[in-house]
Amino acid sequence: MGRLIQADRRATLTEITTRYNRGMQQSICEATTRTTLRWMGYNTRRPHQVPLISTTNRKKRLQFARAHQNWTVEDWKNVAWSDESRFLLRHSDGRVRIWRKQNENMDPSCLVTTVQAGGGGVMVWGMFSWHTLGPLVLIGHCLNATAYLSIVSDHVHPFMTTMYPSSDGYFQQDNAPCHKARNISNWFLEHDNEFTVLKWPPQSPDLNPIEHLWDVVERELHALDVHPTNLHQLQDAILSIWANISKECFQHLV
């Protein structure tokens, strides 16, 4: 039965029982299968979601890891991490469960209201390093190369030159199209004597510690006693939460 589980993690209880009984002189029922699996330590769980990474990008991620395997904590302190994130006004949690009878599926107390596109949302761009929490910038409906150039010149540049006056800082950004636009690349070339752009492997949000800060903001939004009811309130809440992230919190991420 353990081999059946290893061969197909998504098999249903019925499928496992059927496959187990094939060729067996004495068959078992689904209840026995369930009891046996629990005795073996198996329980059904929601699988963790991970990005689908191509073979080529797997190799690039490995190359990145090998190139930086000897970096010390002091080296990583010289990296400024950045990213964009979107926070919805209303968040639908697919993990919600309720108790109801078979004929109560449309009872108002058994329904969860939804709003298309979460009722709107707020997109932000932020950055931080081990030394300090950087700026958080509100973005319009989308981030294009023109808007990103303004962020780079107005926020990234002063942050990097202030935090790393010896020009030993690294700026991290992912491979979003607006980050790779020609005008952005040209701007970084013009300022390569002030800091270095960290070469980032594709499909690697899991390597960026700023993702943990987005999670902090999300959890703090959910924990608010009074939840935002419009986008302006959501913006104010996000900016307030970001500004109050403790130094202990972000320094433990690097």
Automatic annotation (TrEMBL):
GO MF term list: DNA binding
Boundaries of every Tc1-like transposase DDE domain copy? 79-223
What Gene3D superfamilies would the database entry show? Ribonuclease H-like superfamily/Ribonuclease H
Domain of life the protein comes from:
Eukaryota
**What region holds the Transposase Tc1-like domain?**
3-70
Pfam short name (any one): DDE_3
Question: What is the protein name stated in its UniProt record?
Answer: Tc1-like transposase DDE domain-containing protein
Q: Which organism is it from?
A: Esox lucius
Lineage of the native species?
Eukaryota, Metazoa, Chordata, Craniata, Vertebrata
